[in-house]
Amino acid sequence: MNSKILSENVIEQDMENSAPLPMTPLQEFWCYFKKNKGAVVGLIYIIIVVFLAIFADFVAPHLPAEQFRDYLLAPPVWMEGGSWQFILGTDDVGRDILSRLIYGARLSLLIGCLVVILSLILGITLGLIAGYVGGIVDNLIMRIVDIMLALPSLILALVMVAILGPSIINAAIALAFIALPHYVRLTRAAMITELNKDYVIASKVAGAGAFRQMFINILPNCLSPLIVQASLGFSNAILDMAALGFLGMGAQPPTPEWGTMLSDVLQFVQSAWWVVTFPGLVILMTVLAFNLMGDGLRDALDPKLKQ
Amino acid sequence: MFQFLLKRFGVLIPTFLGVTILTFVFVHLIPGDPVLIMAGERGLSPERHAELMAQLGLDKPLYQQYFNYLIGIFHGDLGVSFKSQIPVWEEFVPRFKATFELGMSAMVFAVFFGIPIGVLAAVKRGSIFDHTAISLSLTGYSMPIFWWGMMLVMLVSVHLNLTPVSGRVSDMLFLDDSNPLTGFMLIDTLFWGEEGDFIDAVQHLILPSIVLGTIPLAVIVRMTRSAMLEVLNEDYIRTARAKGVSRWRIIMVHALRNAMIPVVTIIGLQVGSMLAGAILTETVFSWPGIGRWLIDSLQRRDYPVVQSGVLIVATLIILVNLVIDMLYGIINPRIRHKK
After folding, report:
1. Which of A109, B92, B246, B281 has CB 3.0 to 4.6 Å from B212, enough for a Cys bridge?
2. Could you tell me the pLDDT band of residue A133, with boundaries at 50, 70 and 90?
3. Which residue of B has its CA nearest to A236?
4. CB of A163 within 8 A of CB of B29?
5. Confidence check: pLDDT of B316 > 70
6. For residue B159, what are the domain limits?
7. What is the ipTM of this complex?
């Protein structure tokens, strides 16, 4: 009895003397993540945009489709003729640009989520199967991946949208499809390195089935590169969605999608710079924020990849 | 080396066949009857409809249509455009020259600025120059280039009036379009045009090249910087320094040559994304290249053009990747000899 208390005391003392308490995985992650200043800035920007998107109904001064016929092409507030009613000005049919951008954030983020989740689920499943089963299945899947990588992604997306018909959901499906090869390759590569490790063999001996091996035993150890890729996939999805919208093959007007807002504005470069400038600036900043955050995630989760 | 090439070609053939299947399936999945689209608003009698279907070979079973298509490809027959009734290949060549000219000058712009900036950023690691280069390259990487194009048009062309807004040459120039010398505007204007024509063509090329070159530039800066940093830490660089080789010579001769290996690869990989970028750039600047040709025919549902156009583009990318692989073997003998 006594000796037990004694030994516990010794252990406690040892811990106090030797090292601080080990950090939880989350704390460790945050410790690395916050070292990258750019990533933190990106994260803050994303949090603000998410907030604006969720509370768009309360934050936006006007409805996105509301047309003010008396204020066509009104300039931003700081210019002569601008008013606080339309902080970033109005477009050619008198819609408030700021409100449209805020509602557009909702769309862009939703599309980003949809694309990333779809391509993650499909990409991981295919990658795991290719890596685990091997042989003909692996060859077949990887050949198809190679073929998809031989086509420029935007052209592939355009053809797919032509098949499905131009709409925002179809564009998202097309973008998820063209993002697949990257996830398949990453998952397969991680799977193959894990496959020969002792724990996998051990659980195989213990009688774990293929499904359990793939999704419960191995997948959690392959997640780091996939999380990084997902963050970069988010920025790609927003960028490509805007490009599709710009080409008239994504969201259809009058949907307040950022790229669609830029589809017919070349005529205003002379008269109304704000119609051209702000939607693109928001796209740039959002994509940049996700790329910055992706870099930070990579530093924190996958130090091997750090360049 | 021969074995290395043979192996690469072996992978090439199934990939090429896969692309033909993919384009064939895709185009047949696009909804709408091609004959009705060809006829346009006029409408057709059922007999005429059946006749046209038979003429185009569309009444045969799908697998037979695919084999006919494949046989056609190997005979150099890529189909005829529904819209213009011109063979696809003949439509492709002049447009490809326009895109090639634009893409090459964009690449020259990206490499010419990208490599020196990347090297300098690596050499002056941690300096203000380094930080600025990294931030700008990340911004360039995140750029929606169609917007960037419009911004440049707005600032440079409209407000400063320095460059023309769109097209390859001014309308005032009278070049014989039907029988061009080479189809490359820079060369044609230089040898054919009057004085000032060449300058005019160059001015038209500047903004589109900057726009299309922005993302490759950003990627090249990043890649050169990180490759240089890695190489500069190697032992042989320290040896060279200990031997008293000048700093300039170490960087330019010893380090840069090895750092170029990943950079060459990344330049090759940019070709594919540049073709995607060409669609957007050509749309903004009304550049008569393959990007705009593809999207126009997609919107018009001109199937032969879409089918063969995508096939040609994919084949080009596959070939470029092959060339890059070969270059890779030349630059880095270790890869060539590896089993």
Report:
1. B281
2. confident
3. B142
4. yes
5. yes
6. 100-298
7. 0.83
The answer to whether the CB atoms of A155 and B275 lie below 8 A apart is yes
pLDDT for residue A1: 44
Angstrom distance (rounded) from CA B285 to CA B203: 13
Three-state DSSP class for residue A165: coil
Nearest-CB residue to B317 (from A150, A163, A265): A150
**Range of A139-143, A147-151, B166-170 with top mean pLDDT:** A139-143
Contacts of A259 in chain B (CB under 8 A): 144
DSSP for B76-109? T---B-TTT-SBHHHHHHHHHHHHHHHHHHHHHH
CATH of the domain at B148: 1.10.3720.10
Each residue's pLDDT tens digit, B129-179: 999 999 999 999 899 999 999 999 888 888 887 877 777 776 655 555 556
Give the residue on A whose Cα is nearest the Cα of B283.
A247
pTM (predicted TM-score): 0.84
Inform me whether the C-beta atom of residue A272 falls under 8 Å from chain B C-beta atoms.
Answer: no
The whole-angstrom separation of Cα A228 and Cα A294 is 6
Please report whether residue B125 resides in a domain.
Answer: yes
Angle at B63 between CA B61 and CA B68, to 5 degrees: 95
Q: Does A150 touch chain B (CB under 8 A)?
A: yes
Considering only residues 9 to 48 of chain A, which have any Cβ-Cβ distance to chain B shorter than 8 Å?
38
A173 touches chain B (CB under 8 A): no
Closest by Cβ to A155, choosing from B150, B276, B299? B276
According to the model, what pLDDT value does residue B129 have? 93
Interface probe with A: pick from B142, B225, B232, most Cβ of A within 10 Å: B142
Encode pLDDT of A215-258 as tens digits.
Answer: 888 888 888 888 888 888 888 899 999 999 888 888 888 888 88
| B274 falls within a domain | yes
pLDDT: is B169 or A201 the higher one?
Answer: A201
Q: How many domains does chain B have?
A: 1
Instruction: Pick the residue of A145, A148, A151, A292 with the most B CBs within 10 A to test the interface with B by mutation.
Output: A151
Work out the number of other CB atoms within 10 angstroms of the CB of residue B81.
22
The mean pLDDT of B311-319, rounded to a whole number, is 85
Which region, left, alpha or beta, applies to residue A20 given φ > 0 means left and ψ of -120 to 50 means alpha? beta
Higher per-residue pLDDT: A9 or B31: B31
Is residue B231 situated within a structural domain? yes
Domain assignment of residue B48, yes or no: no
Chain B CB within 8 Å of residue A171 CB: no
Print burial letters for B122-132: b (CB count within 10 Å at least 16), e (below 16). bbeeeeeebee
Is residue B339 very low, low, confident or very high in pLDDT (cuts 50, 70, 90)?
A: very low
Contact A165 B31 (CB under 8 A): yes
